């Protein structure tokens, strides 16, 4: 008994005895040195376990208190009591500021201290109070105070190979400059603040998940057998992460990809592009049909985008009428982790919206997705992009399901490939030297810019016509004389100087062809072969009058083509064409243009008044496991080899009547339908494809 008490007493004074002290103890207690060593080790483990249990108990109690206070605030908000008469208060008679003061100030200081203490424990460093810097009537204080422990949990323990800095995840909730909540119909200021606090908590959790997914390799990410792309190991993902927006809806499928690439842009410029909805759409014109920033919760700290948090809406598209547009409402959160290292994460918010509002059908949920950007010494940035989504596959045509399930439709590869191509184009356009492939002798420097701007508008309108986004108000037609997989839409063009006035008819379809995407792209963009499929070529080859390079690949360019006149009385016609290609797909977009108007553009005039209606083609790989036919060759195992192919989307926009008030005729619909069918058949014949 004496020996045990003596050991406990000595342990309090010296829990880590050295070799000499252990030897002296063993002699005094008649024990072996190993026994003394193991006793002290076991005692230290017991003390550590007891301390952790005690701390966990305190944290659980604090969490329960915060949850109870949260519930009491909600109850108080639903049933406010007048402090003068004790009766029920009429919300409309109390100002927004006064509601906050009455409900918030009662618990302001205690809650602030508790949250700062919790955050300090998780982050391993003290968090300063905001009390000294808050304005007396600052209604947004509940955002900083309502974060709770979930927004910080685990953020300080991220294992990383990037220079993320010691304050990863910290300092955001307590120093974020938050815009004051605005009053909306049926939503009190307190509800608004509580919602924003949940948004911030969700953003922090999403950022934590994105960074881990960007850095961890196997077993979280594995290489696909076909194409070698990185795909997510869903079992490992479920073991590693807790779903931050709830479980996957019934009937939804998961797509998840990761891609890393070098991009000729610095991290600050890319972050500014991603946080500006207009610039984001301009950087990814073929992927984003429409986007807007619906609310800015925080604009960032210290005049930078660090800590910027905003609510956004976007329509994402694959250029085919067989793939529905994905509409997503999401948070976008930006965080600087170190000098030259940034991360931008998106996450859907549909699950934390007010359930009292009638639910709307959501065909896609965006799980934590985005990019980690790291500056490189050569002026490039290393971009690691992660795309993770759940979507309703039943609305997608069978032809495109392999493409989407592999992540090649909306996946990381497409985002990175588009970003690389667009940044390369911007670098060339900003350069003072004209590429050697350009032949623009008759075009001024201003004309070059005007022509590129016109081509961009042409391509944007083409994409909007294929996918029927809300950029234009399209009306879908159901006509019995139209092929099953051809979508025909109509709209009125009025008071738009960039389009001819009247009734515009758009028709689009997608087909599978047993040829490689590169071969199909080279065939369609070659002006010498255009007569094999284009009725506008007048049956002969076209001549390239001007060529503006937009990238290192010869397929990325804007051209001005001239068709040969069929007879002396017929004037030749000009066609503006833009072609682009990257690892994810390619485009060939063209439109007839007025010759006098193009002369104005080529001399640097305003291209906004050039009226055009675009047509063209979108080409993507058919995806693994597609319906491509089998060739006669066999593998070593005896099974047939699948012929790889392409998915080709053909789309036309045609003015069928110059009067906007005119009615659409059956003959007009049949004409456009026949034009699409004839063009597809000509392409198949020229490439020797089976019908």
Automatic annotation (TrEMBL):
Name this polypeptide is given: Homeobox-leucine zipper protein ANTHOCYANINLESS 2
InterPro entries, sorted: HD, HD-Zip_IV, HD-Zip_IV_C, Homeobox_CS, Homeodomain-like_sf, START-like_dom_sf, START_lipid-bd_dom
Localisation per UniProt entry: Nucleus
Claim: Glycoprotein is one of the keywords in the record: no
Domain START residue range list: 192-428
Coiled-coil intervals: 44-76
Annotated Homeobox domain residues: 11-50
Main localization (coarse): nucleus
Signal peptide as annotated in the record: none
DNA-binding region: 13-51
A cellular-component GO term for this protein: nucleus
Record organism: Vitis rotundifolia
One GO molecular-function entry: DNA binding
Family recorded in the similarity comment: Belongs to the HD-ZIP homeobox family. Class IV subfamily.
Transcription regulation keyword on record: yes
Keywords: Coiled coil, DNA-binding, Homeobox, Nucleus, Transcription, Transcription regulation
GO biological process: cell differentiation
């Amino acid at each position: 008994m004496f020996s045990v008490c003596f050991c406990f007493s000595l342990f309090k004074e010296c829990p880590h005895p050295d070799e000499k002290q252990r030897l002296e103890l063993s002699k005094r207690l008649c024990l072996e040195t190993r026994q003394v060593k193991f006793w002290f080790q076991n005692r230290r483990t017991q003390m550590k376990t007891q301390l952790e249990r005690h701390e966990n108990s305190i944290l659980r109690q604090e969490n329960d208190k915060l949850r109870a206070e949260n519930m009491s605030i909600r109850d108080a908000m639903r049933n406010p009591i007048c402090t003068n008469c004790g009766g029920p208060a009429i919300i409309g008679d109390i100002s927004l500021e006064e509601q906050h003061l009455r409900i918030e100030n009662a618990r302001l200081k205690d809650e602030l201290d508790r949250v700062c203490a919790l955050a300090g424990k998780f982050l391993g460093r003290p968090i300063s109070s905001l009390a000294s810097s808050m304005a007396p009537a600052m209604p947004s204080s509940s955002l900083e105070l309502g974060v709770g422990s979930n927004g910080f949990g685990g953020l300080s323990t991220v294992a990383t190979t990037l220079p993320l800095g010691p304050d990863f995840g910290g300092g955001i909730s307590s120093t974020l400059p938050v815009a004051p909540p605005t009053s909306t119909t049926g939503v009190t200021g307190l509800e608004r603040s509580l919602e924003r606090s949940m948004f911030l908590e969700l953003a922090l959790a999403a950022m934590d998940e994105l960074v881990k997914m960007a850095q961890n390799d196997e077993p979280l990410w594995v290489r696909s057998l076909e194409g070698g792309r990185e795909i997510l190991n869903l079992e490992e993902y479920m073991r590693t992460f807790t779903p931050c927006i709830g479980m996957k809806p019934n009937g939804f499928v998961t797509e998840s990809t990761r891609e890393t690439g070098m991009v000729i842009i610095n991290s600050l410029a890319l972050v500014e592009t991603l946080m500006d909805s207009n610039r984001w759409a301009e950087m990814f014109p073929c992927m984003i049909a429409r986007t807007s920033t619906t609310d800015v919760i925080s604009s960032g700290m210290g005049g930078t985008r660090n800590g910027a948090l905003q609510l956004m809406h976007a329509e994402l598209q694959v250029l085919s009428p067989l793939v529905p547009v994905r509409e997503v409402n999401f948070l976008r959160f930006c965080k600087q982790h170190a000098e030259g290292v940034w991360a931008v994460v998106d996450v859907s918010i549909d699950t934390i919206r007010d359930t009292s509002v009638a639910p709307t059908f959501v065909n896609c949920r965006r799980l934590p997705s985005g990019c980690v950007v790291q500056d490189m010494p050569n002026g490039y940035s290393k971009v690691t992009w992660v795309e993770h989504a759940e979507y309703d596959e039943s609305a997608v045509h069978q032809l495109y399901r392999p493409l989407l399930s592999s992540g090649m439709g909306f996946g990381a590869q497409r985002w990175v490939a588009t970003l690389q191509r667009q940044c390369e184009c911007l670098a060339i356009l900003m350069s003072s030297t004209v590429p050697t492939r350009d032949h623009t002798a008759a075009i001024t420097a201003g004309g070059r810019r005007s022509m590129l701007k016109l081509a961009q508008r042409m391509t944007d309108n083409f994409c909007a016509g294929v996918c029927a986004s809300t950029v234009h108000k399209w009306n879908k037609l159901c006509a019995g004389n139209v092929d099953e997989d051809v979508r025909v839409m109509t709209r009125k063009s009025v008071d738009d100087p960039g389009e001819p006035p009247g009734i515009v008819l758009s028709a689009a379809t997608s087909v599978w062809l047993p040829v490689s995407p590169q071969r199909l792209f080279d065939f369609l963009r070659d002006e010498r072969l255009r007569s094999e499929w284009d009725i506008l070529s007048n049956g002969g080859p076209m001549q390239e009058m001007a060529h503006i390079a937009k990238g290192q690949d010869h397929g990325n360019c804007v051209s001005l083509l001239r068709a040969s006149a069929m007879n002396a009385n017929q004037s030749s016609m000009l066609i503006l064409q833009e072609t682009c290609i990257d690892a994810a797909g390619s485009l060939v977009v063209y439109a007839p243009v007025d010759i006098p108007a193009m002369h104005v553009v080529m001399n640097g005039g305003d291209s906004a008044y050039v009226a055009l209606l675009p047509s063209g083609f979108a080409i993507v790989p058919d995806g693994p496991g597609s319906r491509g036919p089998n060739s006669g060759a066999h593998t070593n195992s005896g099974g047939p080899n699948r012929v790889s192919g392409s998915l080709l989307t053909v789309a036309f926009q045609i003015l069928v009547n110059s009067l906007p008030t005119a009615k659409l005729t059956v003959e007009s619909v049949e004409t456009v339908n026949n034009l699409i069918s004839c063009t597809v058949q000509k392409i198949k014949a020229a490439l020797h494809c089976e019908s």
